[in-house]
Design brief:
- With 551 residues, this protein is of the alpha/beta class.
- 28% of the residues lie in helices and 20% in strands.
- The protein has a seven-stranded mixed beta sheet. A six-stranded mixed beta sheet has the order 21-23-22-24-25-26, sandwiched between helices.
- The chain is globular and about 70 Å long.
């Protein structure tokens, strides 16, 4: 049975839990609670915009949205805050009632204090956990590893290190998964279940916090409830399936049909217009394959009838580990695209030798091809070729890259790549507080910061003889007067810093303002920030029209 290492504190068990806000961050908080099968009572609208009973349409999983004033009338309510909600926002909210950040609401699962357990992993994280568990009186028998290398000791800190034996999967009746490398939290449960392990399996999170931005499971389930759709569950690991179905029952739901990824094409007889497909596997390769098959069957985030419980947006090379992030002494991390015919840090589209025009593209995850839906940059190259323009595109976009990282990558590599045209499409990753060598001034708005850094890139590009084209990217989180569902999907915080962009953009500056391009168009996004095939195609068309005179 899958259990979470941390569960609600005993003294909070009788509280009526309400989630603060009705934003994307609130949906993350709800997801964290929901996978622990905690019966959330509702949401609190900090602006009162969406307050009302589920019948008014502003609800998720048919839970009410109440105003902060109504919260003060409840005797047993507890506000649940995301860990990253600003302190001032939290203090203002606590005027209406009791509340805690998620990290302060949970303690170790009570079952951990019974019997003894094995830690899966023997690295620094495992040692840290061992110290914490020992201090709290939780007994650990030793460490399990997938491959016990020859130089690995037989014991550490007085406890044995054993190689997990697939032939005897239940050699330990209770295993605690410890995070080690970036992907291990999802790889290990998948491996254990494939081997036939059936004991208690303790995990930190059913879906990792960094992946929640790319998973809108409960929003899709909410749509299924509102539209009386059939719920289809495709799940690889049986224990995980049990947890999901228990979670559904918490909200009065059940899966109408259950299949494994191997049998996903059996769903060909289901009507995508009348059903919603939820896919789970701890293994990202399986999630990728299932998502690709689902799209063939008519299920996709683009159509509002598909979600995965973990991030499934990586394209095949990333999902299958053919490429990955590598240390970069100037930029923290880059992707080596040489296995795919590219260069370190740069994907390459087109024939370099035959190209008449070299184009350099910079941006964040919305411009990179490590994600499932083909990027606008790749589509742009094919659009150029289709119009008789022989081009090669060097795409140096990277997930989470902000304008400052673009500037560093541009400055370092422009001499080597010698582009004729430099294109940047950015904005979203600069809406937070920068943490780089180009910190914004204390009195500088985030929009002005973004514009200043892009201005530096323009000077560098032009100094090297390249034409520079800057695009302020489409961002759905800045839509004025969003409806409830849009708010949960795209708006990180109600009334957040995005206003700095919406209030200060200009149509007669050196950049092209695409900020509002998709505000009133559906189907352009597949999650909080990434564009669908249709969205990427539209951006490619606009960029081509702008640069075609210089090709």
């Amino acid at each position: 049975m899958i259990k979470h290492i941390q569960t609600l504190k005993t003294d909070l068990a009788d509280k009526d839990i309400y989630v603060w806000d009705t934003s994307k961050r609130a949906s993350w908080t709800f997801t964290y609670l929901a996978y622990r099968c905690l019966p959330v009572k509702g949401f609190v609208s900090c602006t009162d915009t969406f307050a009302g009973e589920p019948a008014c349409g502003n609800s998720i999983m048919r839970l009410p949205v109440i105003s902060a004033g109504d919260l003060s009338k409840l005797d047993n309510a507890l506000l649940a805050f995301d860990d990253e909600v600003p302190r001032k926002v939290m203090d203002d909210a606590l005027k209406w009632g009791e509340g805690l950040r998620l990290r302060d609401m949970f303690d170790y699962h009570p079952d951990l204090y019974e019997g003894s357990h094995w830690l899966y992993g023997a690295g620094a994280h495992a040692w840290t956990l061992l110290k914490r568990f020992t201090k709290r009186g939780i007994r650990i028998d030793g460490f399990l590893v997938t491959d016990k290398a020859g130089d690995m000791p037989d014991e550490v800190l007085g406890l044995p290190i054993k190689q997990f034996d697939p032939a005897d999967p239940n050699m330990a009746s209770s295993i605690i998964v410890t995070p080690t490398r970036y992907h291990d939290p999802e790889d290990i449960p998948a491996y254990l279940e494939r081997c036939g392990y059936s004991g208690d399996l303790y995990i930190y999170e059913f879906i990792r916090r960094p992946d929640m931005w790319a998973s809108d499971t409960f929003i899709m389930l909410n749509k299924a409830m509102n539209e009386n759709r059939r719920i289809l569950l495709c799940c690889k690991e049986p224990m995980a399936g049990e947890l999901i179905e228990k979670c559904l029952r918490t909200f009065g739901l059940q899966a109408n049909r259950y299949v494994t990824p191997e049998d996903i094409y059996d769903l060909a007889d289901e009507d995508p217009a009348k059903s919603t497909l939820i896919v789970h596997s701890f293994d990202r390769k399986i999630r990728f394959d299932a998502a690709e098959a689902a799209k063939e069957l008519g299920f996709s985030p683009e159509y509002g009838n598909f979600a995965t419980t973990g991030k499934s947006c990586y394209d095949r090379p990333m999902a299958y580990g053919e490429i990955d992030y590598e240390y970069d002494r100037m930029l923290e991390a880059s992707i080596d695209y040489t296995p795919l015919g590219g260069k370190p840090g740069w994907a390459v589209y087109g024939d370099e030798a035959a190209a008449d025009t070299k184009i350099m593209v910079l941006g964040g995850s919305t411009s990179t091809d490590v994600f499932r839906f083909e990027s606008w940059a790749s589509k742009l190259q094919r659009l150029c070729e289709a119009n008789g323009k022989r081009t090669v595109i060097y795409n140096g976009a990277k997930e989470k890259a902000d304008a400052a990282e673009e500037l560093v990558r541009l400055t370092r590599d422009i001499k080597r790549l010698a582009p004729d045209i430099v294109i940047t499409l950015s904005g979203l990753n600069d809406t937070g507080s920068p943490a780089n060598k180009f910190e914004k001034f204390r009195d500088e708005r985030v929009f002005d910061y973004w514009k200043r850094i892009e201005g530096y890139s323009k000077m560098i590009a032009e100094a090297e003889g390249a034409k520079f084209f800057c695009f302020l990217q489409p961002i759905n989180g800045f839509k004025p007067d969003p409806d409830f569902e849009h708010n949960l999907m795209f708006v990180t915080d109600s009334g957040w810093i995005g206003r700095s962009f919406t209030d200060n953009t200009s149509s007669d500056d050196f950049y092209y303002d695409l900020l509002r391009l998709f505000h009133d168009v559906s189907g352009m996004f597949v999650d909080q920030g990434h564009y669908s095939e249709a969205g990427a195609a539209k951006i490619a068309e606009i960029v081509y029209d702008v640069i075609k005179g210089d090709l």
